[in-house]
Design goal:
The structure is a single chain. By secondary structure, the protein is an all-alpha fold. About 70% of the residues lie in helices and about 0% in strands. It contains five helices and no strands. Helix 1 runs antiparallel to helix 2, helix 1 packs antiparallel against helix 4 and helix 4 runs antiparallel to helix 5. It starts with 7 loop residues before the first helix and ends in a 14-residue tail after the last helix.
């Protein structure tokens, strides 16, 4: 029974892009767990909680991405060796400063957002609205998390750009 109005051969690029995103999310998830366990210093309480919040969110997204791949009638990638081989996010030394942890997490967000945009692009080319909707929400949420982490890296007397244009 075909419950989708899309042909398998047209879905394959979407599935490949989703599997890469799945691999990226798995490595990102594990790095967040490591940060959660290994953060030290005066920012311990804030970052310990933030890293837990981020990895809990990543865990949900991992499941949803895999389930989207299954919805598209393919098996998701599911081995650690495949994730390590496929992911653009790389493992790093787990003993680093809190600032390095946040900066590396922001870099991982950039990689995730790039892959999400690739998923949107291939999904749009075949009018796969279900995948577009799922990943579009992820982009919005990750951009917000990135803004918050980026704000954490700034000095307290910093400021943002101002709009000089009137409406």
């Amino acid at each position: 029974m075909s419950y989708l109005n899309m042909k398998d051969e047209k879905l394959l690029p979407v599935v490949v892009a989703l599997n890469k995103l799945l691999a990226d999310y798995h490595i990102y998830y594990q790095k967040l767990r490591s940060n959660h366990w290994n953060v030290l210093g005066k920012n311990f309480f804030d970052l310990h909680i933030k890293f837990e919040e981020l990895y809990t969110d990543a865990q949900v997204k991992i499941d949803e991405i895999a389930e989207r791949i299954l919805t598209l009638r393919y098996h998701p990638m599911s081995t650690l060796s495949d994730y390590l081989q496929t992911s653009s996010i790389t493992e790093k030394d787990n003993l680093k400063t809190d600032v390095d942890m946040v900066n590396e997490t922001l870099n991982d967000h950039k990689i995730l957002l790039e892959q999400m945009n690739k998923v949107i692009e291939v999904s749009d080319s075949i009018s796969d609205e279900g995948t577009i909707d799922l990943i579009g929400a992820y982009i919005r949420e990750l951009e917000k998390a990135s803004w918050m982490l980026n704000a954490w890296t700034k000095s307290t007397n910093g400021s943002l750009k101002r709009s000089t244009q009137e409406i």
